[in-house]
Structure formats: C-alpha cells, structure tokens
Design a protein that fits this description.
mainly beta, 5-stranded mixed beta sheet, globular
Length: about 160
C-alpha cells in the first residue's frame, strides 16, 4: 500500500558509539619489604577508539539524504555508523552495504551483491548497524538507504572497502 503520509513523518535516534570504553588504573607496587609504596597518581589508559575502515558523505538520490557513513572496527567487531544522518521516511526502508558505487542509477543496487544490515531505525540521528562477523567486505563500494517497496535508493554514500 502506498503510504504518502510517510513523506511528512520524522523520527530521531541518537545512539552512542557501540564500542565499550574501558579504563585501567595502575596499582601501587609493593616495596622490597612487602609494604606498598605511597600511592602516586593512578594512571588511566583509554583505548584509542575504533579504527575507521572507510567513510563517505551521503548523496541524495530519490529523496534528500545527508550525513556521513563510517565503517568502524574495534577488537574484530565491525559497525556501520551513520552520523548526522537525515533522510525521508518511507515504507520498508533498509540499510545495505553494496558493491554498486554510490550515486548509481537508483534501480541498480538490488541487481548486484549487497549485505543487508537491517531496517532503517530512524529518519534522523546517529545510528549504528552491526556488520555480521562473516560478512566479506571485499568489493563493497557504498552504503545505500534502500526502499524495498518501490525498489529505489533514497541516498547512498561511497565506501572504499577491499
């Protein structure tokens, strides 16, 4: 069913980075007599954060779409993160990684290899989509916001992976 009111609805999700921030504090070392030394300032180590494997800015296709897509990795876990993201609402809208280049003919994406990451969580915000551990990212060239109902790309962002 065509749902024209979806063109006027908005939703917002602001997800934090999905990677845990861990800190470690060094304990004071005992002296030769088995008595701890006076405690100095504890040292805290924070991980450098996730590695950016690829990133690109969204381009509009069938609907105005903006923001940045980043593929992040930390400790073997990969995530597609959409930051400052905004697009239109629609029926049956999904997020894919695709072997088709960004800004291609908007009917081209479902005719080539793609990795579905899930339904679009919101029209606006900062969104995380886990990438399956067994997903082969070789040849992936873009992320696409795909409307399955009408077989069109709302927007896409270039990602140079593998």
């Amino acid at each position: 069913m065509f749902q024209p009111w979806r063109l006027f609805t908005r939703s917002n999700v602001d997800e934090a980075l999905p990677f845990p921030v861990t800190t470690t504090t060094a304990a004071s070392a005992p002296t030769g007599a088995g008595v701890p030394t006076a405690s100095a300032e504890p040292t805290t180590t924070t991980p450098a954060g996730p590695k950016v494997l690829a990133e690109g800015a969204f381009v509009s296709q069938e609907h105005p779409t903006r923001g940045t897509a980043r593929v992040l990795e930390q400790d073997g876990t990969r995530v597609l993160r959409l930051e400052g993201f905004s697009t239109s609402d629609g029926p049956d809208v999904h997020v894919w990684l695709a072997s088709t280049p960004a800004n291609a003919d908007w009917h081209a994406y479902d005719d080539t290899r793609h990795i579905p990451l899930g339904k679009l969580k919101a029209t606006d915000g900062n969104l995380n989509y886990p990438i399956p551990a067994d997903a082969d990212l070789t040849g992936i060239q873009s992320t696409v916001i795909w409307c399955d109902r009408f077989n069109v790309a709302f927007g896409s962002a270039p990602l140079a992976l593998g």
